[in-house]
Amino acid sequence: MNLGIKLLVAEDDPNLGTILNAYLTQKGYSVFLATDGQIALDTYQKEDIDACILDIMMPVKDGYAVAKEIRRVDKKTPILFLSAKNLEADKLKGFEVGADDYITKPFSMDELLARLNANIRRAFDDGKPEKNLFHFSNTTFDYFHRTLTVNGETRTLTTRESDLLRFFAINFNQLVDRNSTLQKIWKDDSFFAARSMDVYITKLRKYLKDDPQLEIVNIHGVGFKLVQKT
Questions:
Q1: pTM greater than 0.85
Q2: HSE (CB half, 13 Å, CA atoms) of 201?
Q3: Beta partners for residue 155, in sequence order
Q4: CATH architecture of the domain covering 129-228
Q5: Is the pLDDT of residue 128 over 80?
Protein backbone atom coordinates (compact mmCIF):
# COMPACT_ATOMS: atom_id res chain seq x y z
CA MET A 1 0.00 0.00 0.00
CA ASN A 2 1.41 3.33 -1.04
CA LEU A 3 1.76 5.76 1.85
CA GLY A 4 1.59 9.55 1.87
CA ILE A 5 -2.10 9.35 0.99
CA LYS A 6 -4.18 12.34 2.09
CA LEU A 7 -6.81 11.06 4.50
CA LEU A 8 -9.75 13.06 5.87
CA VAL A 9 -10.83 11.89 9.34
CA ALA A 10 -14.04 13.52 10.61
CA GLU A 11 -14.60 12.73 14.28
CA ASP A 12 -16.09 15.05 16.90
CA ASP A 13 -14.88 13.01 19.90
CA PRO A 14 -11.54 14.73 20.68
CA ASN A 15 -10.06 11.65 22.38
CA LEU A 16 -10.89 9.25 19.54
CA GLY A 17 -9.88 11.86 16.97
CA THR A 18 -6.48 12.25 18.58
CA ILE A 19 -5.98 8.47 18.70
CA LEU A 20 -7.00 8.01 15.06
CA ASN A 21 -4.77 10.89 13.98
CA ALA A 22 -1.74 9.49 15.79
CA TYR A 23 -2.31 5.88 14.65
CA LEU A 24 -2.95 6.63 10.99
CA THR A 25 -0.13 9.17 10.82
CA GLN A 26 2.21 6.54 12.27
CA LYS A 27 1.05 4.19 9.49
CA GLY A 28 2.16 6.75 6.91
CA TYR A 29 -1.04 8.59 6.06
CA SER A 30 -1.22 12.37 5.84
CA VAL A 31 -4.20 12.95 8.14
CA PHE A 32 -6.54 15.95 8.10
CA LEU A 33 -8.66 15.87 11.26
CA ALA A 34 -12.05 17.61 11.29
CA THR A 35 -14.23 17.99 14.38
CA ASP A 36 -17.55 18.72 12.67
CA GLY A 37 -19.20 18.05 9.34
CA GLN A 38 -18.75 21.51 7.89
CA ILE A 39 -15.04 21.54 8.68
CA ALA A 40 -14.83 18.10 7.08
CA LEU A 41 -16.50 19.31 3.89
CA ASP A 42 -14.37 22.48 3.79
CA THR A 43 -11.23 20.36 4.21
CA TYR A 44 -12.30 17.99 1.44
CA GLN A 45 -12.89 20.92 -0.91
CA LYS A 46 -9.61 22.63 -0.02
CA GLU A 47 -7.28 19.64 0.02
CA ASP A 48 -6.90 16.96 -2.65
CA ILE A 49 -8.21 14.22 -0.35
CA ASP A 50 -7.65 10.58 -1.35
CA ALA A 51 -9.90 8.82 1.19
CA CYS A 52 -12.40 9.75 3.93
CA ILE A 53 -13.29 8.29 7.32
CA LEU A 54 -16.49 9.93 8.55
CA ASP A 55 -18.28 9.71 11.87
CA ILE A 56 -22.04 9.96 11.40
CA MET A 57 -23.16 11.85 14.49
CA MET A 58 -21.29 15.15 14.13
CA PRO A 59 -22.34 18.75 14.80
CA VAL A 60 -23.26 21.23 12.03
CA LYS A 61 -23.45 18.53 9.32
CA ASP A 62 -23.72 14.82 10.00
CA GLY A 63 -21.66 12.22 8.16
CA TYR A 64 -24.50 11.31 5.81
CA ALA A 65 -24.77 14.92 4.63
CA VAL A 66 -21.01 15.19 4.15
CA ALA A 67 -20.91 11.96 2.12
CA LYS A 68 -23.80 13.11 -0.08
CA GLU A 69 -22.02 16.40 -0.82
CA ILE A 70 -18.81 14.58 -1.71
CA ARG A 71 -20.60 12.09 -3.95
CA ARG A 72 -22.24 14.90 -5.90
CA VAL A 73 -18.84 15.75 -7.39
CA ASP A 74 -16.68 12.69 -6.69
CA LYS A 75 -17.72 9.10 -7.34
CA LYS A 76 -14.35 7.47 -6.71
CA THR A 77 -12.73 8.63 -3.45
CA PRO A 78 -13.28 5.91 -0.82
CA ILE A 79 -15.64 6.87 2.02
CA LEU A 80 -15.73 4.81 5.20
CA PHE A 81 -18.27 5.46 7.94
CA LEU A 82 -17.13 4.96 11.52
CA SER A 83 -20.13 5.07 13.82
CA ALA A 84 -21.78 3.89 17.03
CA LYS A 85 -25.02 3.60 15.02
CA ASN A 86 -25.17 -0.15 14.43
CA LEU A 87 -28.74 -0.77 13.24
CA GLU A 88 -29.12 -2.30 9.81
CA ALA A 89 -31.14 0.74 8.70
CA ASP A 90 -28.22 3.02 9.62
CA LYS A 91 -25.79 0.90 7.63
CA LEU A 92 -28.10 0.77 4.61
CA LYS A 93 -28.48 4.53 4.67
CA GLY A 94 -24.71 4.85 4.79
CA PHE A 95 -24.30 2.78 1.65
CA GLU A 96 -27.21 4.60 -0.04
CA VAL A 97 -25.46 7.97 0.35
CA GLY A 98 -22.27 6.59 -1.17
CA ALA A 99 -20.19 4.86 1.50
CA ASP A 100 -17.76 2.14 0.45
CA ASP A 101 -17.61 0.63 3.94
CA TYR A 102 -19.27 0.95 7.34
CA ILE A 103 -17.45 0.15 10.59
CA THR A 104 -19.26 0.13 13.92
CA LYS A 105 -17.81 1.28 17.23
CA PRO A 106 -16.11 -0.17 19.15
CA PHE A 107 -13.61 -1.39 16.56
CA SER A 108 -10.00 -2.51 16.36
CA MET A 109 -7.41 -0.24 14.80
CA ASP A 110 -6.03 -3.19 12.82
CA GLU A 111 -9.45 -3.87 11.28
CA LEU A 112 -9.90 -0.19 10.42
CA LEU A 113 -6.49 -0.09 8.73
CA ALA A 114 -7.16 -3.31 6.80
CA ARG A 115 -10.50 -2.06 5.52
CA LEU A 116 -9.09 1.36 4.65
CA ASN A 117 -6.23 -0.19 2.69
CA ALA A 118 -8.60 -2.57 0.88
CA ASN A 119 -10.90 0.24 -0.21
CA ILE A 120 -8.00 2.37 -1.39
CA ARG A 121 -6.63 -0.55 -3.42
CA ARG A 122 -10.01 -1.06 -5.08
CA ALA A 123 -10.30 2.64 -5.88
CA PHE A 124 -6.85 2.85 -7.46
CA ASP A 125 -6.74 -0.49 -9.27
CA ASP A 126 -9.03 -0.97 -12.26
CA GLY A 127 -8.11 -4.62 -12.80
CA LYS A 128 -5.77 -3.89 -15.71
CA PRO A 129 -2.28 -4.11 -14.22
CA GLU A 130 -0.68 -4.11 -17.64
CA LYS A 131 -1.92 -0.53 -18.06
CA ASN A 132 -0.91 0.73 -14.65
CA LEU A 133 2.82 1.08 -15.31
CA PHE A 134 4.19 3.37 -18.01
CA HIS A 135 7.73 4.11 -19.18
CA PHE A 136 8.51 7.16 -21.31
CA SER A 137 11.95 8.54 -22.08
CA ASN A 138 13.42 9.33 -18.62
CA THR A 139 10.06 9.04 -16.88
CA THR A 140 8.25 6.17 -15.15
CA PHE A 141 4.65 6.48 -13.98
CA ASP A 142 3.19 3.88 -11.63
CA TYR A 143 -0.55 4.50 -11.49
CA PHE A 144 -1.29 1.84 -8.87
CA HIS A 145 1.17 3.37 -6.40
CA ARG A 146 0.60 6.92 -7.72
CA THR A 147 4.32 7.62 -8.16
CA LEU A 148 5.95 9.62 -10.93
CA THR A 149 9.71 9.26 -11.37
CA VAL A 150 11.47 11.77 -13.61
CA ASN A 151 15.26 11.52 -14.02
CA GLY A 152 15.48 9.45 -10.83
CA GLU A 153 13.42 11.87 -8.71
CA THR A 154 10.16 10.37 -7.40
CA ARG A 155 7.06 12.21 -6.24
CA THR A 156 3.68 10.95 -5.04
CA LEU A 157 0.72 12.17 -7.08
CA THR A 158 -2.79 12.88 -5.89
CA THR A 159 -5.66 10.70 -7.05
CA ARG A 160 -6.86 13.27 -9.58
CA GLU A 161 -3.34 13.88 -10.92
CA SER A 162 -2.85 10.12 -11.32
CA ASP A 163 -6.17 9.61 -13.09
CA LEU A 164 -5.50 12.45 -15.50
CA LEU A 165 -1.93 11.38 -16.30
CA ARG A 166 -3.02 7.78 -16.78
CA PHE A 167 -5.70 8.86 -19.27
CA PHE A 168 -3.06 10.74 -21.26
CA ALA A 169 -0.60 7.83 -20.96
CA ILE A 170 -3.10 5.24 -22.20
CA ASN A 171 -3.70 7.50 -25.21
CA PHE A 172 0.00 8.25 -25.68
CA ASN A 173 0.72 10.21 -28.90
CA GLN A 174 -3.04 10.41 -29.54
CA LEU A 175 -5.29 13.44 -29.29
CA VAL A 176 -7.78 13.37 -26.42
CA ASP A 177 -10.45 16.05 -26.70
CA ARG A 178 -11.34 18.28 -23.76
CA ASN A 179 -14.89 17.02 -23.29
CA SER A 180 -13.85 13.37 -23.28
CA THR A 181 -11.21 14.12 -20.66
CA LEU A 182 -13.66 16.02 -18.48
CA GLN A 183 -16.27 13.28 -18.68
CA LYS A 184 -13.73 10.53 -18.02
CA ILE A 185 -11.93 12.12 -15.07
CA TRP A 186 -14.33 14.73 -13.64
CA LYS A 187 -17.65 13.15 -14.73
CA ASP A 188 -18.61 16.75 -15.51
CA ASP A 189 -18.02 19.13 -18.42
CA SER A 190 -19.04 22.37 -16.70
CA PHE A 191 -16.99 25.57 -16.86
CA PHE A 192 -15.71 25.03 -13.32
CA ALA A 193 -14.62 21.46 -14.06
CA ALA A 194 -12.80 22.70 -17.17
CA ARG A 195 -10.96 25.34 -15.12
CA SER A 196 -10.00 22.69 -12.59
CA MET A 197 -8.66 20.44 -15.36
CA ASP A 198 -6.50 23.26 -16.70
CA VAL A 199 -4.98 23.70 -13.24
CA TYR A 200 -4.15 19.99 -13.01
CA ILE A 201 -2.63 19.93 -16.49
CA THR A 202 -0.40 22.85 -15.47
CA LYS A 203 0.69 20.82 -12.42
CA LEU A 204 1.51 17.77 -14.54
CA ARG A 205 3.53 19.86 -16.99
CA LYS A 206 5.53 21.22 -14.05
CA TYR A 207 6.23 17.69 -12.81
CA LEU A 208 7.35 16.55 -16.29
CA LYS A 209 9.51 19.57 -17.13
CA ASP A 210 12.72 17.80 -16.07
CA ASP A 211 12.21 15.29 -18.88
CA PRO A 212 12.81 17.44 -21.99
CA GLN A 213 11.59 14.67 -24.30
CA LEU A 214 8.14 14.37 -22.74
CA GLU A 215 5.41 16.98 -23.12
CA ILE A 216 1.66 17.49 -22.77
CA VAL A 217 0.78 19.42 -25.91
CA ASN A 218 -2.27 21.67 -26.07
CA ILE A 219 -4.14 21.39 -29.37
CA HIS A 220 -5.90 24.74 -29.21
CA GLY A 221 -9.66 24.51 -28.97
CA VAL A 222 -9.64 20.74 -29.33
CA GLY A 223 -7.75 18.89 -26.61
CA PHE A 224 -4.40 17.50 -25.49
CA LYS A 225 -1.77 15.01 -26.42
CA LEU A 226 1.02 13.41 -24.34
CA VAL A 227 3.96 13.10 -26.73
CA GLN A 228 7.59 12.09 -26.70
CA LYS A 229 9.77 14.42 -28.73
CA THR A 230 12.15 12.92 -31.26
A1: no
A2: 21
A3: 148
A4: Orthogonal Bundle (1.10)
A5: no
